[in-house]
Write a structure and sequence with these properties.
The complex is a heterotrimer of chains A (130), B (399) and C (231). With 130 residues, chain A is mainly β. Chain A is 0% helix and 39% strand. Chain A has strands spanning 15-18, 25-26, 51-54, 57-67, 79-85, 91-97, 106-114, 122-128. Chain B has 15 helices and eleven strands. The longest helix of chain B has 17 residues, at 348-364. The chains are: A mainly beta (130), B alpha/beta (399), C alpha+beta (231).
Chain lengths: 130, 399, 231
Amino acid sequence: MIDFSIYDKQEPKIYGYKCPKCGTAYYPATMLCAKCSNRRDPSGIVHPDWDKFSLEGPCKLLTWTRVWALPEGYDRPYLLFGIVEFPNGLRAAGQLETENPVTGMDLVAHVKESSERPGPPVNVFVFSDD
Amino acid sequence: MTARVGIVGIGQIKFGNLSEYDLVDIMAYTATDALIDAGILENRRIIDQIFVANMLGGMINHQTGIASALVSRLDLEPTAAELVENGPASGASAVKLGYMAIASGIANVVMVVGGETMRKVTGWEATDCVATLGHPEAEYDMGLTFPALGGMFARLYMERYGVTERDLALVAVKDHENGSKNKYAHIDGTCTIEAIHDSPNAHVVNNYVAEPLRLFSVCPVSDGAAVLILVNMDSPIVEKFKKKPIRIAGIGSATDTHCMHNRKDPVEMGAVKLSAERAYAMAGVKPEDISFAELHDPFVILELAISEEVGLFPRGKAVEALRRGETGIDGRLPINTSGGLKAKGHPVGATGVSQVVELVRQLRGKAEKGRQVKDPRYGMSVNFGGLANNVITIICAKD
Amino acid sequence: MAIDALEMKLRPPEISLTPYPSKTITLANGKTMVVREAKREECGVLLGTVYPLLGVPTDYYDVVAARMFSELLAWFRYRIANEFVIVGAIDGVIAGIVTSRCVNDHLGMSLHTLAIDRGLRVGAQLFAAKMEHHMDYLNEDEVWIVAESPIGFRRWMIEYELEDRSSGFPNIRHELGGVPTYALTRKLWEKHKADKCTGTRPVPMDILATADRLKLPEEYPQIPGYKRSKQ
């Protein structure tokens, strides 16, 4: 049977990966589990690929910056970036959309597709107030 | 018993905008200066191995196989030559590999050449190229650049240890004071604390780049090259060189997580600490034996943070030493006597080599008037291959 | 001197423009830059400053220098209406020049910005001074701006978030022609001026006196090894 859902519009997602042997979670994906040395095969052909889970939702802001010198492709005066920690202990870096960032504040992680960087569109974390 | 390795020749070109010249020509020109300094220009085939350090030649200059190109430019066939790429630590890595070649007995004389031409493209393209050091999905795709990572590191460090923007400006004033006397430095001018922090104009004159880092908290984009000639000090071949070798006493290197956000504590730089410990152990010295240091400061906050990780100051206390003037040229422990990356410039592949060139100039007693450290015995350099995820520490000694 | 009738026909009608009040800016190296309006009788030293850059293609210095040279000469010879020139001087030596003109009470037309000294944000400061004059002293509503070089584009179009008026072409067309027109509106100026425009007024007499007689720069970072001819 053909899975026609692959032709539907996909909601952009960013995934964490879980070692199927010991359950340790990783973001971004690794190739060897630090805890049990289990290997990952992204093709899933020779060895099983790992389970992935969507990273989104409530998180805490660990640090942030407002960058005025943006690289090629960005046509705005500045961009806010931050590093957050999710309740499961995983951390991520991404763009901030909040007026007055403060270290330690609670935010919500979303994912959007962005074409600002040269090259094909990529999925980007956006941490916002809600 | 491995052979002792010493530096018998140095060369450096004034860092700056060399974009109208070819990358390999710049490297060859600077290498010629080093050959002359070592007294082996005519007898240059005494070199049996060349390591070339370069990070962005493929991306910016559309050039690969740079080591091979350099061999012919210097009429050095059939000398063995390889390119070393370790991000902005390519230079120190090339020195490390040069050391290993001699210590292992494979070579007796090694030339280490670091070079980069970043100004052949715009500043935004150069920033984008350097950003490829980050994790492709978790950092680069997010739009993060190294100033962004530096800004986030700076905020965390400053909040934790009470470092202020004025302190960042003090580092810049010191770096430029040193750099203005360094004939190889990119930036000739000095800056005053009044102009870049205290005056009502300062917020515009010294505008934000990646808050809390300002224009005078970040290094310029530079072109340049630096060269070292290494020799086996235990071989009779050392007699062929005019100058007394400056010994490489210790080298240490270590890595940490690729993504800055995955460090246990993003403010702590475990790779810096470990690489320094390894270098101290090899050299048989302790932090208190270090006379001066060249620390990797593309963002001036890193000068403070690295000096603590390598044990020169207790954690959180480097800023107090800065405020007391201890890290100035006349202070107890001069740091970044060359001007650091901030004032000397940062042609990424050349930086690690230029740090060791500075160690040699100081240990030889041949730095310019006004920036010569008094009676130095041990000098240390720390070179980053990313934001503290790949670090190499080198200690040189005046025996 | 009596201006004959034909000359009067050739001169454009002029609005009497409010003078730009001088200010000082402390640059990063601790030196003081006096920012003041230039006088027509100083045209010689301004032209002499711009002239060496006519042969420097990097960063579009040649185009900017060539166009500014003509703007200065036209201003001097009364062949361009309502132009003003602001100069930045350090110890009397010219560090940068900006040219601009008023189309009418409401609209300014920014011409060029040329910085000799580099690494001190002289160009950025003088561009801001130009905008300050249009908006805060001449009380115009908006200024049209174009950029020849990518650095200029980045500095102004992105940092000031200038409005893109290129869709209004050809009815909206900057006098310099050929490149897309952007506009600084009053709203954008009020939003950005605190971060972009600075300076201390009034200028003490002794400091203003240092910029009384403008001097030609002896060195040009854009031209390594430059030596001014003593002819």
